[in-house]
């Protein structure tokens, strides 16, 4: 495996999924490059491999020349970058469409043999959500530049340090209630971060994956209400109230919460909650990659409490 991987450039390598991917790449013997606007803050990632094996470098994905320099000599490129809400100069279109396009075009020009794009279940050019539209635009741009690219669409990703179970677990500890937006009927199919990282590794090494799109979900779908109920029990506050917030009320609340640091809730996120976030069954998934998905119940209790 190590001989076939060579040099792998991982955009978003310091993120939640990226850290797991970089660890696996280093263990497989790859030379790993992690582009970042502030690589000096990523020195801790070097311990994922041998001396000199993992290298953070200065890169700004807003500029063609910077991205081209980052992928020079790459055998494979992985794009994991994404945002949950616009911030400063980072917009959905800029990060999840334009940057993805720039990275894929640069990878093609550099002669990279493999490309893996992390998208999301729900990516849809016709979606009312700007997040989902930008994910779809990013997929299309990657496909145009590198037709053999592998696209992975995970549902919400869980694991130690995740942004879903941990966020609501913290809310359950300090708030008198947890919000059931839209009545809590939206369905999710949480997927373990380790399974997503394993899927990336298979996508890089199995020629049969070339040009395909995979939907990544766990073994079971849950309603939003079921997940919040599970979170409050695992957080040790089973009596915490679940308060229904109709979508119009949630949109109004999100209007003000967008103004807070960290944007704990946005109107676009409320819009996303109007659609289920589960695998469609029309595309291949984890089992087609030879991966048995791990259940929420096997992992979340190890870190949430």
Task: Please give a structural write-up.
The structure is a single chain. With 305 residues, the chain is an alpha/beta fold. It has a domain of 147 residues: Rossmann fold, CATH 3.40.50.720. Helices cover 37% and strands 17% of the residues. The chain contains eleven helices and 13 strands. The strands form four sheets. Strands 3-2-1-4-5-6-11 form a seven-stranded parallel sheet, sandwiched between helices. A two-stranded parallel ribbon has the order 7-10. 46% of the residues are buried.
Overall pLDDT confidence = 95
Query: Quick one: CATH class of the domain at 2-148?
Result: Alpha Beta
Please indicate the percent range of residues in DSSP E strands (runs of 2 or more): 15-25%
Q: Which strand order spans the largest sheet, edge to edge or round the barrel?
A: 3-2-1-4-5-6-11
Q: Mind describing the biggest β-sheet?
A: 7 strands, parallel
Q: What share of the residues lie within helices? A: 25-40%
- Provide the CATH architecture of the domain at 2-148: 3-Layer(aba) Sandwich
Calculate Rg over CA atoms.
19 Å
Order of helices and strands: HEHEEHEHEHEEHEEEHEEHEHHH
Here the CATH topology of the domain at 2-148 equals Rossmann fold
Number of helices: 11
Overall 3D form? globular
Identify low-pLDDT runs.
none
Assigned CATH superfamily of the domain at 2-148:
NAD(P)-binding Rossmann-like Domain
Distance between the termini: 38 Å
Number of strands: 13
Going by helix content, strand content and strand pairing, the class is: alpha/beta
């Amino acid at each position: 495996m190590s001989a076939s991987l060579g040099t792998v450039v991982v955009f978003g390598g310091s993120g939640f999924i990226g850290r797991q991917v970089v660890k696996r790449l280093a263990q497989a013997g790859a030379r790993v490059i992690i582009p970042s606007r502030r690589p000096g803050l990523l020195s801790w990632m070097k311990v994922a491999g041998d001396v000199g094996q993992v290298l953070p470098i200065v890169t700004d994905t807003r500029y063609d020349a910077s991205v081209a320099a980052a992928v020079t000599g790459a055998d494979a490129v992985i794009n994991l970058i994404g945002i949950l809400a616009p911030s400063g100069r980072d917009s959905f279109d800029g990060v999840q469409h334009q940057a993805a396009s720039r990275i894929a075009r640069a990878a093609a020009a550099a002669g990279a043999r493999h490309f893996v794009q992390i998208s999301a279940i729900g990516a849809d050019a016709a979606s009312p959500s700007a997040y989902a539209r930008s994910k779809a635009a990013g997929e299309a741009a990657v496909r145009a530049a590198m037709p053999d690219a592998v696209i992975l669409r995970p549902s919400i990703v869980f694991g130690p340090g995740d942004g879903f179970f941990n966020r609501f677990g913290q809310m359950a500890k300090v708030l008198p209630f947890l919000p059931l937006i839209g009545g809590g009927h939206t369905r999710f199919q949480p997927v373990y971060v380790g399974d997503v990282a394993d899927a990336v590794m298979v996508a890089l090494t199995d020629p049969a994956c070339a040009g395909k799109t995979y939907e990544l979900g766990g073994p079971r779908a849950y309603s939003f209400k079921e997940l919040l109920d599970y979170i409050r029990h695992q957080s040790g506050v089973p009596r915490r109230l679940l308060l229904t917030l109709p979508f119009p009320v949630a949109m109004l609340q999100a209007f003000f919460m967008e103004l807070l640091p960290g944007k704990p809730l946005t109107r676009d996120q409320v819009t996303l909650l109007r659609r289920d976030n589960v695998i469609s069954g029309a595309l291949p998934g984890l089992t087609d990659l030879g991966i048995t998905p791990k259940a929420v119940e096997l992992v979340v209790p190890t870190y949430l409490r």
